[in-house]
């Protein structure tokens, strides 16, 4: 069923469908972790219903955004979201493994992606074909993603990804094989004392070796209440909704 929600009361709307991969914390975390600068060209690979792009534009409205998505129903909702918010974003129905003639090589400062987390046959099962495609690497491996990102990025451009900690070696190996040097890592924990559940990674095209491990991102305090950082990421602090 198609649904609509807002980033904050009276704020930008976004559309999604329960039958597709629903919006989750990982998208909000990546939308905050990525560091686009005003006026830069950004591409969201495997954009789904367009939430990550909306998060980036909500903080840096002057971005030039392109979205690539294989699912026509998901892309239709992304287009609906951007139209409803009067945002100028180009949506491409395309396979990220075949972008020649769709998007220019070396044309982007930043690529973002929330890719499938599990190899085919691995990880928990998902209900429905659309969710299964979003969760498993049947249509896109991490190597496919890194190769596509490397082609799109200009020299010095960055790929920002949210991924599973247990597959960090696979991700960083795929980055290096594609000429993207892992430069920044932040692990996400539900609360102090919990093992990391997600990893936020930035790789830079042509970057020099040297990985900066940032302090963990805690979503909740020990008593279960939200941390101030999670509140900021979810736009619950009005003063921090947009960057200057």
Short descriptors:
244 residues, alpha/beta, two-stranded antiparallel ribbon
Structure described in brief:
The protein is α/β, with parallel strands linked by helices. It has seven helices and eleven strands.
Let me know the number of strands. 11
Number of helices: 7
Helicity, as a percent range = 25-40%
Shape: globular
β-strand percent reads: 25-35%
Poorly predicted runs are: none
User: Averaging pLDDT over every residue, what do you get?
Assistant: 92
Task: Encode the helix/strand succession as letters.
Answer: EEHEHEHEEHHEHEEEEH
Structural class: alpha/beta
Cα end-to-end separation? 37 Å
Q: Rg, please?
A: 17 Å
Main pleated-sheet profile: 9 strands, mixed
Structural notes for this entry:
The protein has 244 residues and is an alpha/beta fold. 27% of the residues lie in helices and 27% in strands. It has 7 helices and 11 strands. It has helices spanning 25-33, 51-59, 72-84, 129-135, 142-152, 168-177, 228-233, and strands spanning 2-6, 13-17, 41-45, 64-69, 89-93, 108-113, 153-163, 180-189, 196-205, 212-213, 217-218. The strands form 2 sheets. Strands 3, 4, 5, 6, 7, 8, 9, 10 and 11 form a 9-stranded mixed β-sheet that branches. A hairpin with a 6-residue loop joins strand 1 (2-6) and strand 2 (13-17). Helix 5 (142-152) packs parallel to helix 6. The termini are far apart.
